[in-house]
Amino acid sequence: MKHGFLLLLAPALLAGCNNSPEKRAESAVAEYVGNRMGDPASYRAGKFDTRPYTRQDSVAYVASLARLNADSATKPTVSPKVANGAARIGTFVRHDYREQTKAGDVSRDSGEFVVYPNGDVVQLIPGYRRGQR
Length: 133
Known about the structure:
disordered N terminus, about 30% strand, alpha+beta, four-stranded antiparallel beta sheet, about 130 residues, globular
């Protein structure tokens, strides 16, 4: 009996060890989104788009927020170059999902997130909201 249990458990453990950073990020975002819904059981995952998130991406995001918050009289700034800007610091995830209530109502939404190597998930302001107004 012990050996049968171990044989069933081994593939799951191996699959968990071989997960790519992208798959771990998708799983973390799905958990993050589901836990923030009124009824987590109503969460239905949709499409995931992932890519590496670098230091330069982080600086560009902060610069876009600064432009968004800047006085309209100020001139937009260009994101500065960062030393070792291509270094991966996390995984960017764009996720489409829906919430289906028990009454059958469906609402669709999406979000942009960064998942850091330690598992922390940070929700970003979507790019279309940070664009020029």
